[in-house]
Design a protein that fits this description.
Number of helices: 10
Largest sheet: none
Order of helices and strands: HHHHHHHHHH
Structural class: mainly alpha
Radius of gyration: 16 Å
Helix content: 55-70%
Distance between the termini: 50 Å
Number of strands: 0
Length: 183
């Protein structure tokens, strides 16, 4: 029981850290939901749909946007959560110094090179983001931009098919539903 409690504690420690780092950041939806809902949602999908119970993978899911979107450094992640978490997070972290089109293309190109753990996070991240493509959200995104995102996300996920059947099925269902809602 102690091992289970320790694992849960490690995951919750990452959630607390991610919440502090993302602070007052909000999502691009109409309600401006707290940004932390996103990494929590990604970790929850991994746990519920993919059955992931590995604390390091769940920590990485919770922390997957900290280096990209906050002042957190890879070194801080390693100090606080260990090298495995840092490595997984860095696999799914875009290089913000590059132009957005290049970052998006690199996600497509590099997807097959990701570790299994990073692939799981990448798919869950795309599920969560695609689920937010609604007629009224993200704010200031027209229909074409939303459809472009859904198609691009599909291209990324298609490059890592075979990672997890249930996650991929949920991704496909989500994209189909969102495209239908946007018609």
């Amino acid at each position: 029981m102690k091992d289970h409690a320790q694992a849960v504690s490690e995951v919750l420690r990452a959630a607390v850290y991610a919440a502090a780092q993302h602070g007052l950041q909000t999502r691009k939806d109409k309600s401006e939901a707290p940004y932390i809902n996103h990494p929590i949602g990604v970790a929850e999908l991994l746990c519920r749909v993919a059955g992931v119970a590995d604390p390091a993978v769940l920590q990485a899911a919770l922390l997957h946007d900290t280096v990209e979107d906050t002042i957190t450094t890879p070194e801080q992640l390693e100090t606080l959560f260990g090298s495995r978490v840092r490595v997984i997070v860095m696999e799914v972290t875009d290089d913000e110094s590059l132009p957005k089109p290049q970052r998006k293309q690199l996600q497509v190109i590099n997807a097959p090179r990701l570790s299994h753990e990073a692939r799981l996070i990448r798919i869950a991240d795309k599920i969560y983001n695609c689920s937010e493509m609604r007629p009224d959200s993200p704010v200031n995104w027209n229909r074409e931009r939303k459809l472009d995102y859904l198609n691009w996300a599909s291209t990324v996920v298609n490059r890592i098919r075979g990672t997890h059947v249930e996650l991929e099925a949920l991704f496909d269902k989500t994209v189909t539903e969102r495209k239908t809602a946007l018609e």
